[in-house]
Design goal:
The protein has 1 helix and 38 strands. By secondary structure, it is mainly β. The strands form 6 sheets. It has an 11-stranded parallel sheet with strand order 1-4-7-10-13-16-19-26-30-34-38, with no helix packed on it. A 10-stranded parallel sheet has the order 2-5-8-11-14-17-20-27-31-35, with no helix packed on it.
Length: 338
């Protein structure tokens, strides 16, 4: 459509009856291929989603501020928004897209959300460009597709620890010890406990460049490790977690001060193609499961299945040299342990 919406402040709190129907409502709804341009608006305090898209609706949002809603922007049913110069904050989730076709997030800030800043599934080519994902419960998740992340800052995000106390809840700190000693509370697992900065699942092939991933923390413990398994499956990848059948291409990135149970900077379990790192700095990433220790402090940058093209100061376990990593790097403090 050719509709332009600009300069409005919109709210839709719980129980609002302005349209004659009381209940929980969205701030803006686009459906039946409705694709307006929405600029310089504030959408706040919505009981449901700030912007809710369905039925192949493809709006362009520029300079829109969304805060205190359930999901900032939700896109389903083939809807593909373009989000530019956005601020999304204090929502339960930032951007959620399912079945989109080339989602674009550019020049935007997504922060302080109670779930992932960006969650994309079923999109062959989403992109996040020149944007910041800060202090969310998880930075970004890509399920399948070939996502591109370029010129971004992904900082201060936490991959939560899941637990059950009647319903399922998320904690920003490890819940294992409390769950053991508390009646009615059980430590449970979820893929979302990995990849505090970026989480790749189900064959996602990430191209990431010119990006800083710092101070992200995967806090969970695998309740079956070490009693029932030799390697944990949760609490992995402070900066980046590369899941099964996934891989990543890293160029000109910095992973610094991230923390996880394993792979403080990067943890890769991909098994399709070689992960690739070039001109990538891994600095002061930390893991609680230490295998290599320097003279002054412990640092874990990568949890790996192996390497190709050995690099000085890059020390995998002998049995792990299986060519799952291609490393082309001339950067300081490049160390690893599995």
């Amino acid at each position: 459509t050719n509709t332009l919406v600009t300069g409005f402040t919109m709210t839709s709190p719980a129980g609002g009856c302005a349209d004659g129907t009381c209940g929980y409502e969205h701030g803006v709804i686009c459906q039946a291929a409705s694709s307006p341009m929405i600029t310089n608006c504030v959408i706040t305090g919505c009981a449901l989603n700030g912007v809710d898209l369905k039925d192949a609706s493809n709006p362009v949002l520029i300079g829109v501020q969304i805060e205190d809603c359930a999901i900032g922007v939700s896109a389903a049913g083939g809807s593909t928004p373009t989000l530019r110069d956005m601020t999304i904050e204090n929502c339960l989730k930032g951007v959620y897209a399912s079945g989109s076709d080339g989602l674009k997030i550019e020049d935007s800030l997504i922060q302080n959300c109670g779930g992932r800043g960006v969650y994309v599934t079923g999109d062959a080519s989403p992109s996040v460009i020149n944007s910041s994902l800060l202090n969310n419960l998880g930075g970004a998740t890509f399920v399948g597709g070939r996502p591109v992340v370029d010129q971004c800052v992904i900082d201060g995000n936490i991959a939560p620890d899941y637990y059950q106390a009647g319903a399922i809840f998320k904690s920003t700190f490890n819940i294992a010890l409390l769950a053991v000693s508390t009646d009615g509370m059980t430590d449970v697992t979820n893929d979302d406990e990995n990849g505090a900065g970026i989480l790749l699942l189900d064959g996602a092939a990430l191209e990431i460049q010119n990006t800083i991933l710092s101070d992200n923390n995967a806090v969970a413990l695998d309740p079956d490790y070490p009693e029932r398994k030799s390697v944990p499956d949760y609490g992995l990848g402070g900066g980046l977690y590369v899941g099964t059948s996934c891989y990543s291409t890293n160029m000109n990135n910095t992973y610094a001060d991230n923390e996880a149970r394993r792979g403080g900077g990067v943890s890769s379990h991909g098994d399709v193609e070689d992960d690739y790192l070039r001109n990538t700095i891994l600095w002061d990433n930390f893991t609680e499961d230490k295998w290599v220790e320097s003279l002054t402090y412990s640092v874990t940058n990568l949890s790996i299945g192996g390497i190709e093209n050995g690099v000085t100061n890059f020390v995998p376990e002998v049995e792990d040299i299986t060519t799952n990593w291609l490393v082309v790097v001339e950067t300081p403090e490049f160390r690893s342990l599995h």
